[in-house]
Amino acid sequence: MKRTLHLFTLLFLVLFSTTLMGQVAKTQVVQVAATANGDGTITLKWPNDGYTGNYVVYHRDFIHANNAWKGPDATLAGTVTNWTDTLSAGLSREYRVLKVKNATTEALGYIYVGNKFKTQPTRGGIVLLIDSSYRIALKTEIATLTQDLLADGWFPTQIFVGRNEKVDAIKSKLDLHIKGLPKAPKALYLLGHVPVPYSGNFSTNGDRPPPDGHVEGVGNHTGAWPADVYYGTVNCFWGDENVDCTTGSEARHKNVPGDGKFDQSAPECPIVYEMGRVDLYNMDVFSTNDTQLTRDYLNRVHNYKVGKSQFRRRGLIDNNFGGLNLASTGYHNIPCFVGLDSFSDAVDYFTEQTAGSYLWSYGCGAGSYGSCSGIGTTNDFAANKGKFSNAFTMLAGSYFGDWDSKNNILRGALAGGSLASCWGGIPKWYLHHMGLGQNIGYGAKITQNNVNDYFNGAFNYSWNGVFIALMGDPTLNMLYVQPPTNLSAVESQGGTLLKWNRSGEKVDGYVVYRIDQKNQEYKEIATFCGLGTSTTTDTFYWDYCKPTIVNPSAGDYKYAVRAFKWETTGSGSYQNLSLASMANSKYTAANTDLSVLSYNLYPNPTTGVTTLGNLTAQQLISVDVFNALGQLIQSFEATADEAGQYTWRLPAGVSGILEVVITANEKRSSTKLIAIQSAE
What we know:
This protein is about 15% helix and about 35% strand. With about 675 residues, the protein is α+β, with helices and mostly antiparallel strands. The radius of gyration is 29 Å and the shape is globular.
């Protein structure tokens, strides 16, 4: 096995120096985009490249859980450039498209497709593992980050750790913290220079060669590599007993028994959390300290999430490794985001992104810790800070996948203007789900855990390695909608009147929620009554599902209103939710006394004539009727008959869910009445 690894590494080194062997990356990928049609179908599209074999299409229903591919759904001639499948509105599906010739798969493409797919408002719990040196210095920015996470459906908690703490002590602190949470978190966000775990035996004579191929005598990038995935595992064994590798060119790579660096080159169990790190320590080419660089980054991310900054929906690929398949990561992902017609592979990385903004970019070339040949250097990111305009970038080349290095170019991209970056191509990264509203950390987790669920790239045994890491906020979505603002919640007539200011852009509507912080859920208002709607195009909403005499539960309520747009991307269409505008209210059931006032309202639903029963004979009552918007539509005083009843007619044309408020003997109560278009 070790002989095989060594030979593979040597092959890699030969290819790594070659740039004129043809566009291997492009030929190994089926570039797939999709269009959601109005007739309940979805059309997959790919370029016409004169293929002489067949295209074969498979699918599986989401959400991804290593579920098996079904099919084939279609086998098409190589001249065919599209295929249409039935996919009803509200649904999503993942497709795999293969190029097959003589029973051999020559290329693969993946895409996650939706047709007016409705995204989930609840994201899950997230733990912020924060460098304690930022506790005071970045107090304001951390508070804004926490608020933005909650507004996006995440439920954040915080742990502060020191830069000199041992990684195993931090892991124990993290595990104990998680045990005390109401639900296991979904994500982990490392902010600052949180101590970096190291793990692995990357060597000619080790478990695997270094993922960039630089074995002993050829760069000596051997030994242990940064391994943030250590923090992302649960009840997983990490040994520090067997590896003895001292051939690495830097002391941090040397790995010997009992030194606090772990043995594993690949995790022995799955990565549980969607992870990302923002660590701008040791980046002195930017001529400012890591605190300020981190402040700048957090402010840029905030501005993006609330729609104050935007990027053109286009992508670029700058491939300087024609003979390697590294850029296949770019060719696979970017069409899913921007479509087939909105990206180019005939442009220069820095020239283009300093002249205008790009949503996505990919670049690869021979590398050092701080450079990528044909792309640029960390110094270039520093020199162009404020001009470089890019949301997400993927870069690949030697050395800099080892991101815990001084002036590292992956971290330089974060400091210089990008919101997220990764060593894309070593191995292949699978981020295509972002085209349908998934966060980037989801794709990072898939990539870290991928062995053969997706094509792993077959590149230098790099898949499922401990070194695979996302630089940036793991909760980032690809696109954001400007949120509504200034939500207010005012108690009125036994309910709550919500008002807000419109989004700053044209949207398709607003969704109203109550936030259940105990159970970590965003719940649509309508779910509390089982009636009505949670969606409106207005800027006000009457919460008619408040406690009543039948359900006298007072308490605190947290409301959230989110704007939404039906978004179209290279993956179809989906409901893109903005961050929420939030407000609190306190309901006190002070005037509900079941022993004093108890009545029946029937028929319910009613077509207009309504009877109030179970009153006292000749009892004086006051009746107020409100519509779902809180508007008073009827008000009168009356006297019950000898049977303890009173019958009246609603105003003509009234329909929907009404709030009927009854006052008697200085006590007040209310109930819901469903009106079906009343008669004159």
